[in-house]
Design a protein that fits this description.
Alpha-Beta Plaits; alpha+beta; 8 helices; 206 residues; single chain
Length: 206
């Protein structure tokens, strides 16, 4: 991402660009080589990780709109989390990735305009840095992703347990499957270093 790219040395920047060129990826934007049906982890990040979903009301609103967006294209949502500066959502049964791109670009566009108006930052601030996606490979990867989503608020230091964060599907799983199921899933599919080295193991889209 650009905010990371700018922090490294010129030699490291050249290496990153060359690596992306060899893979056929765009030089400075998330690559999207797979656009077919499948299951995906999708991540949207506020530009330069600025916390623009910093209020509970804004997270409430965005959570509802994100879920409604995927329901509008009949995509099943398996898990999600909304944090102050990014979100993750796990979707299954995607038939056309083009539809996913359309709804997220529309959502990012509308929230960019509304939040900039509300914060009196129109024309002064970029709200989103596109979005990324990772294709789900198998059952083990699926549950690792789900655990990663639910643990994300703890990982970033917002709370001490996943249950303390309101904007997450962990509460839906707690209500429908129970805490013991969540514990068992956590032990069976630990996240380990999951989330590092994305470009080496999964796909990124915009």
């Amino acid at each position: 991402m650009p905010y990371e790219y700018r922090r490294v040395s010129p030699g490291e920047q050249a290496e990153i660009v060359e690596n992306r060129r060899k893979r056929g990826y765009p030089f400075h934007a998330p690559p999207h080589p797979y656009r077919g049906s499948g299951w995906y982890l999708l991540t949207g990040t506020n530009f330069e990780h600025t916390s623009l979903m910093h209020t509970s009301d804004r997270r409430d609103e965005f959570e509802k709109r994100l879920i409604d967006a995927f329901h509008s294209i009949d995509v099943e949502i398996a898990g999600w989390v909304i944090l102050p500066n990014h979100y993750h959502i796990l979707v299954v049964g995607v038939e056309s990735f083009d539809n996913v791109s359309v709804v997220l670009k529309r959502l990012h566009g509308s929230t960019s305009r509304e939040w900039n108006l509300a914060d009196r930052m129109t024309g002064q601030r970029r709200v989103w840095y596109k979005f990324t996606d990772r294709g789900i490979r198998d059952e083990h990867h699926y549950y690792q992703v789900l655990n990663y989503i639910h643990y994300n608020p703890v990982k970033h230091g917002y709370v001490s347990t996943p249950y303390m964060w309101a904007w997450s599907s962990v509460h839906l799983y707690f209500d429908t499957k129970g805490r013991e199921w969540l514990r068992k899933t956590w032990k069976s599919y630990p996240i380990d270093n999951f989330g590092s080295g994305w470009d080496d193991s999964v796909v990124v889209h915009c």
